Structure formats: structure tokens, C-alpha cells
Amino acid sequence: MPVQNDATLQMINANNAGFGTVRLDPRAETGNYQDHLAIQAGQLPSVYYGLAGSDNTTRFRPLHRSGLLATTARTRLYFAVGGMIGQITNPRAALTTNMQHVCGPVYTSRFYVFVRLGVTLTDFQTSLQAMQTVAQTISTDDLQDMNVTAQASGGTGVYYVNSGALAGTFWAHKDTGWETSILPSAVNNRLRPLCLMDFRIQPSQVAVAQGTGPAYPASLALAPDTRGRVHTGHTLIAPGALANWYAAQSFASLGAPVPGATIWNKYDWLGQYQQTASFATNNYAITGPQIASGNEYYARDFFNLFPVTNPNADAATAQSQSIVSMIDGFVNN
Question: Average of pLDDT values for 156-176?
Fold first, then answer.
């Protein structure tokens, strides 16, 4: 295949991965992270890439109900936020109300703990390293024990999970609680994951977005005041830990299972060579177009409309297996 000429897709290289996001077991969130603390199986987590010397970034979202997507590279400002993110209606107010510096890159507001990840790949690398420097380390087992008994205590701060099923993820504790309640709270005294929140900024606003010291609050003022203008994502994970997670997986396809390390490595092939959105089994072949940034490929509804693609599976399973097969079919020449 010809060398990749899509500037956004060219960013997709493991060396350019700033961070990833992983979806936790949905029972964890509905249970206020009391238990079921694990990364949900069967997903292909998103990876966020930057490029040295560029203010643009891209989100590569391999598996979603709307299909595979590499967003067209844009200038965005990213935060990792701990708290009841689903309740945010005004992102700017969520970050700035009673805002105080905790330590390093960690700040707190009335109901949230957050870290500004920044704009560029260099920002991401600096912020994650700074987070790990000030974070308390904790194992997945100890996190589970702390949350199941609601015994999180001490000052506001962040935790970095260094072993177990959640290795590489970041969590936060808020000493004044995640909510105010006159009744016993099912939310407070538990660690909550740091999840992604990001939004578009203008290239001319990058310097403000990267402001430090007395200039830091001005970066928060760039946040929109309406929920619909921000993107919120899943739990933040360090890029090296995400690569390790992939390496430990095996993904079902339309043929034989595909090792997770193969999927991870073939993301890079998309960044290096033009690829087509095609997959095949012994019974049929789907020949798609050349993959381009900004376009979605094989939404779940496709498999509802064309069940022949996998008559023995539900649409979600058929979509997942087909996209895994498509990625496994990427070539490096």
C-alpha cells in the first residue's frame, strides 16, 4: 500500500501516544466505585496522539457504536477530572468554583479534583510524569479494599495504580467529599477515577491554555460554560500501561483470535501506510474505502442492517469481531 499521506493518521504511532482512556466495568460506576473495579473486557480503548512541534492532536477510537474513527486533528485543551462528571452542566464553573492548588499539577474545586493535561504531546508527557511524581501509589487490590469499605481518608490528592487489573490508571480522593449531603453519602470517602474532559480552543489561545503560576486560572477560563461544548471520556491510563494492557488481551475476530499486541502494533501501520476499511470471512468479503481521518467506519447499525455479516452474533459482537478483523488485515508495505 502507498505511504500514509493523511496528516492526522500519520500521528498514529506508539511514540506519539500521549495517553489512553479505558472503560471500566459499568457496574463500578453505577455502584459509585464500591466494587467491580476492573477494565471492561472486549473493548478497544481510545488512544490520544500528538506530534512533537504541533499544537494539534487526534483521538483514535477503534471501537465504538458509531464505528472506528480517527478524529481530524485539531487544537484542544485536555483535563483529567475526578468527581461526579455526569453531573457537570457548566464545565467552567466545575473547574473554577472554589479552585485551589493541591500540589504539583493537581488542583481542586468545590466538587472536583483535576489535572490540566495540556494541549500538546509534550504537555501530556510532562503532566503525566508530574502526576506520577506527586501521586500516592496503590495496588488494585488495595484500591478495592479501600473503596468497598468507604475508608478513603487523608488529604485531597491523586493515586496511581501500579499493579493489578487497573495498573496505569489514576484516581483521586477529595477530603471534603464529592458531594454535600445531610444524609450518609454513598459517594464520599471513596476514590474516583480521573476521567477525560476536553474541548476545542483556537490556535491563538495555546499560550493561555499552557499558562502557569498566576496565569493558570486564565487557562480554566477557556473552558466552555455549557456541557454540550465539551467531550468527556473514560478513565485516563498512561500510554505504557495501555500498551501492556493490549499485550495481555486476545480479541475475537471473524477468524482466529487476534493477540492484543498485534492489534496495538497494527495501529502504527495505519499511521505508516494507507489502509482500506475491509474485512472478510470464508463466506463473504466486505471491501471498503481507504480509511481517512474524520470518517467513521462500520457503525453498529451497519450490522443490524446487514446481519449476513455475522448471522450467529448480535450486532455488537459482529461489529467488534469485524473491526478486529479489519485492523488485523492492515499491511505494512
Answer: 97
What is the model's pLDDT at position 312? 72
In whole angstroms, what is the distance from residue 212 CA to residue 218 CA? Answer: 9
The dihedral through the CA atoms of 153, 155, 157, 158 has a sign that is negative
Is the predicted pLDDT of residue 184 greater than 80, yes or no? Answer: no
pLDDT of amino acid 306: 75
Biggest CA–CA distance in the chain, Å, is: 64
Q: What does the CA dihedral 244, 46, 28, 177 come to, rounded to 10 degrees?
A: 100
**Of the candidates 266, 270, 239, 229, which has an alpha carbon nearest to the alpha carbon of residue 121?**
239
Instruction: Enumerate residues 6+ apart whose C-beta is below 8 A from 277.
Output: 68, 288, 289, 290, 291, 297, 298, 326
Separation in Å, CA 203 to CA 55, 216, 219? 7, 18, 13
Residues 6+ apart with CB under 8 A from 91: 197, 199, 223, 224, 225, 226, 227, 229, 230
- Every domain of the chain and the residues it spans: 9-245, 251-328
Query: Across all residues in the chain, what is the average pLDDT?
Result: 95
- Alpha-carbon radius of gyration of the chain: 20
Residue 99 contacts residue 134 (beta carbons within 8 Å): no
pTM for this predicted structure: 0.96
Task: Return the amino acid letter for 48.
Answer: Y
Phi, psi of 169 (to 5 degrees): -95, 160
Q: How far is CA 51 from CA 7, 98, 116, 120, 146, in A?
A: 10, 34, 18, 7, 38
Provide the 8-state DSSP code for 241.
Answer: H
**300 CB-contact burial (10 Å; exposed 0-12 / middle 13-18 / buried 19+):** middle
Q: Which three cell numbers stand for residue 124?
A: 501530556
Asked whether residue 172 carries a pLDDT value surpassing 90, the answer given is yes
pLDDT tens digits for range 113-155: 999 999 999 999 999 999 999 999 999 999 999 999 988 889 9
Question: What is the spatial distance between Cα 16 and Cα 158, in angstroms, rounded to a whole number?
Answer: 25
Task: Report in angstroms the alpha-carbon separations of 120 from 15, 20, 55, 104.
Answer: 14, 14, 5, 19
Q: Which of 48, 57, 53, 52 is nearest to 76 (CA)?
A: 57
